[in-house]
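Lecture 7 notes: from sequence to structure.
We start with the chain below.
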Amino acid sequence: MRTRLLTMLCCLLALCCACTPAGVAQLPSPADADGGLTVTFFRCGKADSALLRTDEHAVLIDAGTQDAGEYVLSRLREMGVERLDALIVTHPHKDHVGGADVILEGLPVERAYVGPLRVDSKQSRQFDEALEAAGLTPQTLQAGDALSFGDLSLLVLGPQRTDYEDENDLSLVLRAQYGQTRFLFAADAEKDLLQELLASGQALRAEVLKAPHHGGVEDNSALFFQAVLPEVAVIPCERDTKDELPDEAVLRALRSAGAAVYVTDDGDVTVHTDGTTLAASQ
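Predicted structure tokens for the same chain:
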């Protein structure tokens, strides 16, 4: 009987290991993570929003659509976030800025940062009004700018130009670092911005990649992924047969680069690091 029980336990353990992405430990629960940096990529449909949180600081990168903003705010409250050190909007398209007014109205925010792109839209106007109501003047970030939140640092890698034809190429691309662990947030970067990053000579290597533009494929996507070589890649999108996202070519290229791939349509993705080791869960 004892031998049979041991055999069953070994089989269960083997099954659990088989379900865990290679090279990445499973994090049982975000609540169990003590200290370090926890990054939560929220399930926002085809939209972006990610929380970077240490014991002392909380930074939100993008806020999804208007509806997603309500979800993100509720999750922030569930997680015990009482204030944000910073709200960073990578670019003012509705799937990134649409929920920003909800966040600003629902939580104290100390600072706001934006990229170089300006558009006249309902969502942008609501964001501007919410900023004014909160008494905030947003700072425009550009390549080379650095932000520090205790042991968490952020560096703006791009864009380095402002004359791109495609508005998505004016998205802020950010690299976050905590200890030896790096996160690359590629916003909605498309071919030209990806090429700029590849040609810039900047170190793109990162343990975690927020995949560009909801998992859409570009001619140089595979080259970009090989430059980053992520252990974990997160694609913020909903599986959509119409848009064919995430693109199968992107999934193959990410896995070829060695990444365990998570799609937020399956739920929030949580990545925790103590500065050396990495754990992911969904």
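Points to note: The chain has eight helices and 16 strands. The chain has one domain: 36-281.
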